[in-house]
Amino acid sequence: MGKPTGFMEYKREVSKDVAPKDRIKNFKEFHEHLPMERQRLQGARCMECGVPFCQSGMTICGMTNGCPLHNLVPEWNDLVYTGNWQQAYNRLKKTNSFPEFTSRVCPALCEAACTCGLIGEPVSTKENEYAIIENAYEQGYADPKPPKVRTGKKVAVVGSGPSGLAVADQLNKRGHSVTVFERSDRVGGLLMYGIPNMKLEKQIVDRKIKVMEAEGVTFVTGTDVGKDIKADKLLKEYDRVVLACGASNPRDIQAPGRDAKGIYFAVDFLKANTKSLLDSGFADGKFVNTKDKNVVIIGGGDTGNDCVGTSIRHGCKSVTQIEMMPKAPDTRAENNPWPEWPKVCKTDYGQQEAIAVFGHDPRIYESTVKEFVKDKNGNLKAVKIVKLSWEKDPATGRMSSKEVPGSEQTLPAEIVLIAAGFLGSQKYVTDAFKVEVNQRTNVATQPGQYETNMKNVFTAGDMHRGQSLVVWAIREGREAARAVDESLMGYTNLMAQ
Question: How many C-beta atoms surround the C-beta of residue 306 within 10 A?
Answer without folding.
Answer: 25
